[in-house]
Write a structure and sequence with these properties.
Elements (H helix, E strand, L loop, with lengths): L3 H5 L10 H20 L12 H6 L11 H11 L12 E2 L8 H13 L9 H17 L6 E5 L2 H16 L4 H4 L8 E6 L4 H9 L7 E4 L9 H13 L3 E8 L11 H11 L2 E5 L24 E5 L11 E5 L2 H8 L33 H36 L3 E3 L7 E6 L6 H17 L4 E7 L2 E7 L7 H21 L2
Helix pairs in contact: 5-13, 6-13, 7-9, 7-12, 13-15, 14-15
This protein binds pyridoxal-5'-phosphate.
């Protein structure tokens, strides 16, 4: 029975009371987005978030309404002016994509439709399936393979490693957990492998000690002889090798592990061949890397990101598994409230939750679908080629300038360098280059990041942005030399 009080209470919803005003605000938002993106090259890459702004961003939970307009004005004042910077042409840190305008619109449309893309008979399921199919074509995986769109490379890797572990363990891991294991499962990768693989090993119950970190050669690629020796040692000493993770594009230097040799080792010892291609797998589409990366097609699974070189806005990554049944066997689960029907709303495709851990999934496929259609894969490939060329050009400028030193071979689009001066020690050089990097960032000129290679502090440039021009690269070099000199003058 309804109480008297609830009956007289006015019913509400969270939709606007004034749709006209909301429409106006929406138009303003789109105008501001276009202004932001078409002027992006003319503003500093980065500015520090002022303390006053940090304070306003740590206030208590709001109790009462504010108008949508006022909330938006606050966003314009406190959030928009202090970006990470990865949409800017001179953002070179980590491995980050730049996004696209239509990609941003797609996210708006996806949020407006707001489907949970897991189960059911509705268009988003088919868009998701379509994008996964395109991903298979990109990587040269057969149509019979399976795939899943996830938040990014980390989720893609842990999803593949879950399948690998369950399939290779030789007993029912889903029922017995790792307690059922007759021998400790171990996996192999190089010391340059992304930390998400180690995290995945921890979460999968294998533990960090089950990850055999193999050394690398001068080009930062896994040493094949050491890999094979370690596998043989483990077999002799009662361990159970199950998987090798090869990296296509390490985060430090962009190195590509020798895929063919790793594939052959996996065949010999019957190990799962997984590729972390979060950064570099898209280079498979380019003429210069097609040959070397065709062995991706031989992998049991591959992880790659759509929000990096494919320029989808965050977040979007993909994992492909060669054997669909093996993939499904690792995740399928049908509780009574998630039954698939032959027709109606609960009909349609195999529920996506049978292929991964997540039950709630946004419509991330839409931004990829729209972007691939808008540009076509040929143009997207040319974009990757352009970045590869820019990295080569940067390498050339560095080797031509006696003030700069190239610190690692360039395999993809990561370039590591430092400013050098005769007669200073390693630790002085490290301090100088650290200061140089900070000055580049704080001045808003460019945002590289850093790494340490062989004890030397390096400025690390990852060129992954479709907005980067050769002139941006040249500006970076000129400014590195200028700032480098001014710092080294001051310490004289
Ligand atoms: C970026 C990256 C990851 C992690 O991917 P996320 O999308 O950040 O989760 C893993 N491996 C490599 C080589 C990467 O470049």
């Amino acid at each position: 029975m309804m109480t008297h009080k609830s009956r007289i209470m006015k019913e509400q919803s969270l939709d606007p009371e004034n749709w006209h005003q909301m429409r106006k605000l929406g138009h303003q938002v789109i105008d501001d987005v276009i202004d932001l993106l078409c002027n992006i090259g003319h503003v500093p890459v980065w500015n520090e978030v002022p303390q006053e702004v940090k304070n306003t961003l740590s206030t208590d939970l709001p109790q009462f309404p504010t108008t949508a307009n006022d909330v938006y004005v606050e966003f314009l004042r406190t959030i928009l002016p202090y970006p990470k910077g990865n949409i800017h042409p001179r953002f070179f840190a980590w491995v980050q994509g730049g996004g696209t305008p239509l990609g941003a619109f797609a996210d708006l449309l996806a949020s407006a439709m707001n489907p949970n893309v897991t189960i059911g008979e509705h268009s988003a399921m088919y868009v998701d399936q379509q994008v996964v199919k395109w991903c298979k074509q990109l990587m040269g995986f057969p149509e019979t393979s399976s795939g899943l769109l996830v938040s990014g490379g980390s989720m893609a890797n842990i999803t593949a490693l879950t399948v690998a572990r369950n399939h290779k363990a030789g007993y029912d891991v889903r029922t017995n957990g790792l307690y059922g294991s007759p021998a400790a499962l171990v996996l192999y990768c190089s010391v340059e492998t992304h930390s998400c693989v180690l995290k995945a090993a921890e979460i999968l119950g294998l533990g960090k000690n089950s990850v055999r970190l193999i050394g690398v050669d001068k080009q930062y690629r896994i040493k094949i002889k050491d890999l094979e020796k370690q596998i043989q040692t483990d077999l002799k000493t009662g361990f159970s090798p199950f998987c090798v993770v090869a990296t296509v594009g390490t985060v430090n230097t962009g190195a590509i592990d020798p895929l063919k040799s790793i594939r052959d080792i996996c065949r010999t010892y019957q190990l799962w061949f997984h590729i972390d291609g979060a950064y570099g797998a898209p280079a498979k589409l380019t003429g210069s890397h097609k040959q070397r990366l065709r062995y991706i097609e031989d992998a049991d699974s591959v992880a790659f990101d759509l929000h990096k070189w494919f320029q989808a806005p965050y977040e979007a990554g993909c994992v492909l598994i060669k054997d669909q049944e093996v993939h499904r066997a690792a995740f399928s689960f049908t509780p009574k409230y998630l039954m698939n029907e032959m027709e109606g709303l609960a009909g349609g495709l195999d529920p996506i939750t049978n292929y991964g851990f997540e039950l709630s999934r946004g419509f991330k496929a839409l931004k990829v679908w729209m972007s691939f259609k808008e540009h076509g894969i040929k143009k997207i490939t040319r974009q990757i080629v352009q970045n590869l060329r820019q990295a080569k050009h940067l390498g050339l400028l560095i080797t031509r300038n006696p003030e700069l030193e190239l610190m690692a071979p360039i395999s993809l689009s990561i370039v590591c360098y430092r400013f050098i001066r005769q007669g200073i020690s390693q630790s002085e050089a490290n301090a100088l280059n650290r200061e140089l990097l900070i000055k580049l960032q704080v001045s808003g000129i460019a945002s590289p990041s850093s790494t340490i290679l062989g004890g030397a502090y390096c400025i690390r440039v990852c060129i992954l942005n479709h907005r980067t021009k050769t002139s941006d690269i040249e500006l970076l070099v000129a400014q590195s030399i200028k700032i480098g000199y001014s710092i080294s003058e001051a310490i004289k």
